[in-house]
Amino acid sequence: MQKSVTQEEIVDDLKKLGLERGAAVEVHSSLRSMGMVEGGAATVINALMDVVGESGAIVMSAYLVTSLIPLTEEEKRKGITAKVQKFDETANRKSGMGVIVDTFCKLPNTYLGKGINRVCAWGHNAILHSQGYEYLLSIDGWVLLIGVDIHRCSCMHTAEDKVALPKEIDEHFQLPEEIQRQYPRSDWYVEYQDPHKPLPEDAWGKVQIEAERRGLIRRGYVGQAECMLFKAQPVVDIYEEFLRKDPFRLFGLEKA
User: Fold this and answer.
1) Maximum CA pair distance of the chain?
2) How far apart are the first and last CA of the chain?
3) Strand 142-146 vs strand 119-123: parallel, antiparallel, or unpaired?
4) With b meaning 16 or more CB within 10 Å and e meaning fewer, what string describes 31-48?
5) Model pTM?
6) What residues contact 9, with CB distance under 8 A and at least 6 apart?
7) Burial of 51 per CB tally in 10 Å (0-12, 13-18, 19+)
8) Per-residue pLDDT for the chain (256 aa), expressed as one digit of tens each?
9) What's the angle, vertex CA 161, arms to CA 131 and CA 214, rounded to 5?
10) d(C-alpha 104, C-alpha 179), whole Å
11) What's the CA gap between 89 and 103, in Å, rounded?
């Protein structure tokens, strides 16, 4: 019979990883990856709060989207690779962000931001954190990934806001008009790959590899889940550097 992971064990694992009292940390997590957690999502959240304390802050993305919706064979033939549906913040439903996030957002003393890409925060200056990830970056905050990889790291998008991609790259990821009509952006997030164009390379994966090469990422475990802990700004800086220097090479695309 599998042994349950306790709150005390999660606290110990987080401390071994290097998370400390007073840290402000963006957290992305998979409860299932940790194994059988005694008390479920609430136990993980309580352990995080115990480690960073009220002088620190916990920040989570609480996007108003469903889990991935299975694709039909016709959608796959059209080049759709993933889709999620957006929903209104007044809807009382589970999100695709996971049970830890959904539980966290309902706790007392958490602050929930506005808009489809909401951020929820607890702890020191939680209101500022709930307005987006710029504040976390400005105070040299951390990112903790529990059972997930860098593709879940929301603060990475701040680099994209600073660097305008070349037109050819934007067009490579542009949805055809037929798909835009079928899945309007007001209601859907859809990922698409033109079947007649080469697959782009994993840009964020390259950032993670470079961050590890520079010794920026600490690795460990929480329960059974593989984890990464790193300062947010230096890793976002790598992404911005790559976007500015050679975006075509980053995405593995050729100039027209």
Assistant:
1) 58
2) 58
3) unpaired
4) bebbeebeeebebbbebb
5) 0.93
6) 223
7) buried
8) 568 999 999 999 999 999 999 999 999 999 999 999 999 999 999 999 999 999 999 999 999 999 999 999 999 999 999 999 999 887 777 889 999 999 999 999 999 999 999 999 999 999 999 999 999 999 999 999 999 999 999 999 999 999 988 888 888 888 999 999 999 999 999 999 888 888 899 999 999 999 999 999 999 999 999 999 999 999 999 999 999 999 999 999 887 6
9) 95
10) 35
11) 15
Q: CB of 188 within 8 A of CB of 65?
A: no
- Pure H helices in the chain: 7-17, 41-52, 73-78, 99-105, 126-129, 134-138, 157-162, 167-172, 177-182, 203-213, 232-245, 247-251
**Main-chain dihedrals φ then ψ at residue 136, nearest 5 degrees:** -55, -45
Cβ atoms of residues 225 and 148 within 8 Å: no
Is the dihedral angle over the CA atoms 238, 243, 244, 247 positive or is it negative? Answer: positive
CB 169 within 8 A of CB 251: yes
The conformational region for residue 26 under phi > 0 = left, psi -120 to 50 = alpha, else beta, is: beta
